[in-house]
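COMPLEX REQUEST
Ligand: 2-phosphoglycolic acid
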Amino acid sequence: MKKIFAANWKMFKNRQQCAETASELLALVREHDHNAAHQGHECHDAQCSCHQNVQREVIVFPQFMGLHAVAMVFGGADDFSVGAQNMYPAAEGAFTGEISPAMLHDARATWVLVGHSERRHLLGEQDDFVAKKTAFALEQGFKVMLCIGETLAEREAGQLEQVLTRQLDTALKNVPATCDEKTIAFAYEPVWAIGTGRVATLEEIKEVHALVRKLLVQRFPNFGAETPILYGGSVKPDNAGAIILLDNVDGLLVGGASLVAESFSRIIFA
Ligand code: PGA
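STATUS: Structure written out below.
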């Protein structure tokens, strides 16, 4: 399965900074691919397509106003995508401050991040609302990255499995029949590890990803085994290499350490 490296830029960077970081990132990744393909020999072929068989997808989730700029930078690079950090589950209407699927298509977003813990816990989004967004985004032709994760209090109360099962079951209850491993990905992000510098141990990550895999296979017998599960929460260049090698870890969702292109590229190639 290809690995997914997703950058969540949250509420950072103006439009120009989004474009600059995206273009630095693309250049760093291409340089690395190039060197790997030519084993250190310089290649002067401007049309060189040495990255074409790379089993990897890089997704950047910038703030809304940076979407189009980032999409323009990535252009035709088929291993790079751009996604929105949120979407309102209606075609249009009187929803002050919200953004619609058509607006996101217009800005060239192809992914939507749904259920991020900051939206659940700081902005009060409930499981039912997460479910509406998931179903509507899929119906509108987006790929969805659905975030789940427990708080420290829930983990300490022994409710980990119960919380993840509830989050998954509610979020997936109305997904359209077209949903498959190519259109949905999951990110396990323990709330206590996001932006705290406290990363889950490899053992904890392995255990939870095995549980999420089991729950996905039960819910989607046809494609649950192939559906990407990303880990997120204080991923840095120095811990990414060990995390990405764990069973059932198909990618990483990175916040703080994705804001600088060089640091994110070190995570991609960790
Ligand atoms: P972090 O954020 O890497 O800064 O912990 C992860 C996320 O919020 O997706």
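REMARKS: Strands lie at 3-8, 56-61, 80-84, 111-114, 143-148, 184-188, 229-232, 251-254. The longest helix spans residues 15-38.
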